[in-house]
Design goal:
Low-confidence stretches: none
Number of domains: 3
Structural class: mainly alpha
Order of helices and strands: HEEEHHHHHHHHHEHHHEH
Strand order of the largest sheet: 1-2-3
Number of helices: 14
Largest sheet: 3 strands, antiparallel
Helix content: 55-70%
Mean pLDDT: 85
Number of strands: 5
Oligomer: single chain
């Protein structure tokens, strides 16, 4: 909602017609026009650029870096508009097609074309709304909406919305989490910073009650936590295997639901500090525990 309404409410956008940013309803410029036309000197211009561009930019990078260092890709899991669509389409596809992506085998075959039409229609509709919202960051939103309602969109606006809708539709249907894992530069940047901090917040699997986890099964080689992960990651594995984890906590919620009758609670939890360092060690040990349990049952 914030992504869609921020331009309309003048919270944040860049107006191509005015040639400057609008932030919280106020024009944000470098304010050096008078200097360019002989109203000041180069030192004054440099100072304005420094405190109006350089200082805010460095402050934003520093604060973001600290948050990513401590908590990982929390922007992706909790603030990213694209990831919200990933979760929306995932849930819809699971309900209509009995699978989260087109590349996975369905738990049961859906009958008829209606489920496919529902998924495609929602994806196209969301893609169109996204395209319109994206264009509203560059053109006055109210003017854009009036032109759209009156079918008076300009040629360039029409081309932009058409092409963007097609690209977003393809992304939402075929490559949602694939884009998040391999195509989003911002996401990869966050992952690299997060991986560099061994004590950063991470989802830890409690390996002691290994048999409890082993009894949780949705089918052959299927676990509720892995099925719930929008990024299709091995949620109980080591941190290195969860390089693109978005900290969305879907796996934690799924495990808690399965283990709701377990007095000890779920087996997946957020940890940080020294407990986070144990995640990689614990994953390999868990494999040994599972193997030991299987050998014991065979005997």
């Amino acid at each position: 909602m914030l992504f869609l309404f921020a331009p309309l409410l003048d919270l944040f956008r860049f107006d191509l017609l005015l040639g400057h940013f609008i932030i919280f309803g106020q024009a944000w410029t470098i304010s050096i026009d008078s200097i360019l036309y002989g109203g000041g000197d180069s030192i004054e211009a440099a100072l304005k650029i420094f405190y109006r561009v350089f200082i805010p930019g460095m402050l934003f990078v520093a604060v973001s870096g600290v948050l990513i260092w401590k908590y990982g890709r929390i922007y992706c899991g909790w603030l990213c508009p694209h990831f919200s669509v990933v979760e929306l389409i995932n849930e819809l596809m699971l309900k209509q097609l009995n699978r989260v992506t087109l590349w996975e085998k369905a738990s049961k075959v859906s009958k008829g074309f209606l489920p496919k039409i529902v998924v495609a229609s929602v994806a196209i509709l969301v893609a169109f709304v996204w395209s319109l919202g994206l264009l509203s960051y560059l053109l006055p939103p109210k003017m854009l909406l009036i032109e759209l309602v009156n079918f008076e969109l300009g040629f360039r606006s029409t081309i932009f919305i058409t092409v963007a809708t097609f690209i977003f539709t393809f992304d939402f249907i075929f490559a949602r989490h694939v884009f998040c894992k391999y195509g989003c530069a911002l996401g990869l940047f966050q992952s690299l910073i997060w991986m560099a901090n061994q004590k950063a917040m991470v989802v830890k699997f409690e390996r002691q009650p290994a048999k409890t986890c082993r009894d949780c099964s949705l089918g052959k080689n299927q676990k509720a936590c892995d099925e719930a992960c929008p990024m299709r990651l091995p949620t109980r594995n080591m941190k290195r295997a969860k390089f693109t984890c978005t900290q969305c906590a879907q796996c934690i919620s799924a495990c808690a639901e399965v283990q709701k009758d377990n007095p000890d609670g779920g087996l997946l939890n957020w940890v940080n500090g020294d407990s986070a360092i144990e995640v990689d060690r614990g994953a390999s040990q868990f494999k040994n525990d599972q193997l030991a349990i299987q050998i014991k049952e065979v005997k």
